[in-house]
Amino acid sequence: MKFAPPLLAGTALLFTASLALAQGDAYPSKPITLVIPFSAGGPTDVVARSLGVALTKTIGKPVVVENKTGAGGTLAAGYVAKAAPDGYTLLLHHNGMATAPALYRKLPFSPLNDFEPISQVIDVPMTLVGRKDLPAKSLKELLPYLKANAEKVNVAHAGLGAVSQLCSLLFRQAIGQNFQTVPYQGTAPAMNALLGSQVDLLCDQTTSTTTFIKADKVNLYGVTTTQRIPAMPDVPTLAEQGLKGFNMVVWHGLYAPKGTPQVVVQKINTAFRAALKEPAFQQQMKELGAQIVPEDKQTPEGLRSWLKAETDRWGPLIKAAGVYAD
């Protein structure tokens, strides 16, 4: 086995370090692409576009949102995992990063190993809503209704791996009751089916449901967080109505490809944390019922540990439900 002479090895390390510093000094020198795994107009897209505007201001270059849909979000994640590790292609993804290993038998990337975590972004509470003409108008009325009509009740979700599907799995586990689930190709079609009384229930993000709740076009049964949310202070949680321990929040994280220089990662993180403080962004998130995460989660380490914890949490539940894709 041949070894590089100490002088040459030291020179190579110095060159690598100098190159990384040079990249950091020059970054960013061109527009940044923020890839999201879901369609335009969906809840993650709404967050991404608001964030893109704020980040453009704080990082000093245009941030362009690119929708790369398909395969339950794995297409976009796989694309970013293989992108040049230079900080110009970033991924904004939600809980799907933690559930993909359990959902997909042939996942072409590792969420834990093929990305550089940058920061968590926001937490979005979810709401359990029903078609307006459903006889049950409260959770107290809904639970016996589900039991009596188990074979007829159906619950919409936005497709394999969507947070609405995860919420329906968690709800089914919490009440110990099976019901039919109906997949749609996105949140908008699922909501349209609910508004048209083609399905009975939907559990989805406040960014998708708030408008219809305020317009009184759906029945609202509760929010999915452990505490009531500021945007709906009078709406009880599912947990306080008897579903002890029920907790479902849609969290979002920002990632770069593995191998992106740490000096670039830190530069993105600094600009990103400043973007989260932009008044316009904060106001938009408040109106949508979304909550900006605490500062201890706005770090690469915070996102990395959270992703690991969520992967461990959802894996057993998904496997027990027998939900997977080839």
TrEMBL record:
Origin superkingdom: Bacteria
Signal peptide: 1-22
Keywords: Signal
Family note: Belongs to the UPF0065 (bug) family.
Protein's UniProt name: Tripartite tricarboxylate transporter substrate-binding protein
